[in-house]
Design goal:
Helices cover 31% and strands 25% of the residues. By secondary structure, it is of the alpha+beta class. A hairpin with a 2-residue loop joins β5 and β6. α4 crosses α5, α9 (272-286) crosses α10 and α9 (272-286) runs antiparallel to α16 (435-442).
Length: 478
């Protein structure tokens, strides 16, 4: 989980684990293409960034804490010359915020080296780590990603693929992984397909990324998704594919559609901006409000707010201006910054909202602290009423597949009724989108999603110490 305590965070969103990007292109500047690909995926992780490149003889890894432009400059990109590259942006859900946990993870083995990047979370990482350590392996990081890299390196002989096959059969949980050796780029995805992984063509070359928006920004054309349980291998001879693990119940994370993925990305052919706009329309049908203006919490709540305004007939307006340059820093908020509060990131427009009854639309609430601050800021700026509308159902169960909500105590909706949450926020009314309304808006079968954080039905069997009965007992104790 993230090292900044929840009550000291300016964000109140479920956070994704990370984003991955890879390219095999002997005739192109792979490090620069990877840099731009990671730029497009920056929303998936802001703690660290890294790129690994190989020229066929040796590999070089550059990684550090910070945003992509903070980690890489022209001089560093010039040192990263080669034919294959993989890159990573990270938000920690497993392992603390420290340099050793930044990716790519680099490992030497008997016949060469490998670099590896991972999006997701393994639910049996602790057990695998213990087995590795008991077998004499030394691990430098606390992340589950190094566990995967160490397993593959330890099982490898002159060929990498057999080791990857064996490793995939040992992993439990969510993973979209890219692996680079001196002569190949390999992509694997868990048999449930919890995290997205897209395959594209850039001329005659292959590109792989967490989202289609990263393909777009480098000029690649989307070909298809890496299938659940599939291993894709790219070498000088082209692309080959193998179904290593039989696919299970398709279970892509519903929050990719609600919040994680960029609105210009596509998943299952669905444009996420349009899906989020439809969520707002469904929300307006289910939970109308007598109001003068609809505003969205920028930027993630804006598409749903536009949809709510269109369906309700209430005018849409910007009421909060976002400081888009604050980013996510590693400076822990001190007392002075806590007093500044949400205004560091969002500033109201009193001329727009004073004396008005407002509907403010956001995509989700986790802890409620930031939402409470926003309601207070709007009322201080003169809003007559503030009606909060959330374009997703309440998050009431923990996630163990790559979101930083693995503790039920963090989830306000798990511990308070809707009326209690409304009073905590200081709102005049509060309503969430129903699960049926959410699925109607996305226009994809409910059976294709992991909805565990909304309904407690975990598609990947949990370890014994993560049993549903234990979760419910923990919930009752809070």
């Amino acid at each position: 989980m993230k090292s900044v305590p929840p009550n000291e965070s300016f964000d109140d969103k479920p956070e994704e684990a990370c984003g991955v990007f890879g390219i095999y292109a002997p005739d192109m500047d792979v490090s620069r293409i990877t840099y731009f690909g990671l730029h497009a995926l920056q929303h998936r992780g802001q703690e660290s960034a890294g790129i690994a490149v190989t020229d066929g003889q040796s590999s070089l890894v550059v990684k550090d804490m910070g945003l992509v432009p903070q980690v890489f400059d022209e001089s560093k990109l010039l040192t990263l010359q080669g034919d294959i590259a993989i890159g990573h942006v990270r938000y920690s859900t497993t392992g603390s915020t420290r340099w050793e946990n930044a990716q790519p993870i680099y490992k030497s083995y008997q016949h060469g080296t490998l670099s590896l990047v991972h999006n997701g979370n393994l639910i049996n990482a602790g057990k695998l780590r213990e087995e590795l350590i008991n077998s004499g392996h030394k691990l430098r990081s606390t992340s589950d990603t190094e566990v995967v890299a160490e397993l593959i390196a330890g099982l490898s002989n002159s060929h990498m693929e057999p080791a990857i096959r064996k490793t995939m059969k040992m992993l439990e949980g969510a993973y979209s992984i890219l692996i680079m050796t001196e002569d190949r780029l390999v992509a694997i995805r868990d048999p449930y397909g919890v995290r997205p992984l897209s395959l594209g063509k850039l001329g005659d070359n292959w590109v792989i990324a967490s989202e289609t928006c990263a393909l777009d920004i480098v000029g690649a054309v989307f070909e298809r998704d890496v299938a659940p349980g599939e291993m894709v291998v790219i070498t000088k001879d082209g692309l080959s594919s193998e179904q290593v693990v039989p696919p299970k119940k398709e279970s892509i994370c519903i929050f990719e559609f609600i919040y994680f993925a960029r609105p210009d990305s596509y998943i299952y052919g669905c444009n996420l901006y349009q899906a989020r706009k439809r969520m707002g329309k469904e929300l307006a049908k289910e939970s109308p409000a007598r109001a003068d203006l609809v505003i969205g919490l920028p930027d993630s709540g804006t598409p749903a707010a536009i949809g709510y305004a269109e369906e309700s007939g209430i005018p849409f307006s910007e009421g909060l201006i976002k400081n888009r340059y604050i980013g996510r820093t590693f400076i822990h908020p001190n007392q002075t910054l806590r007093e500044v509060g949400i205004r560091l990131k969002l500033n109201p427009l009193p001329e727009v909202i004073a004396g008005k009854r407002l509907v403010i639309v956001d995509d989700s609430i986790v802890r409620g602290n930031t939402s409470r601050q926003i309601v207070a800021v709007l009322k201080e700026a003169g809003a007559k009423e503030v009606h909060v509308r959330i374009s997703s159902p309440p998050i009431i169960y923990p996630c163990y597949y790559g979101i930083d909500t693995d503790n039920v105590a963090q989830l306000i909706a798990a511990n308070k009724t809707i009326d209690e949450v409304k009073r905590f926020l200081g709102a005049d009314s509060l309503a969430y989108l129903s699960l049926d309304g959410l699925i109607t808006a996305i226009k994809i079968s409910k059976e294709k999603f992991c909805l565990a954080c909304l309904n407690g039905k975990y598609p990947i069997p949990l370890a014994k110490d993560l049993s549903i009965s234990k979760l419910m007992l923990e919930k009752e104790k809070v």
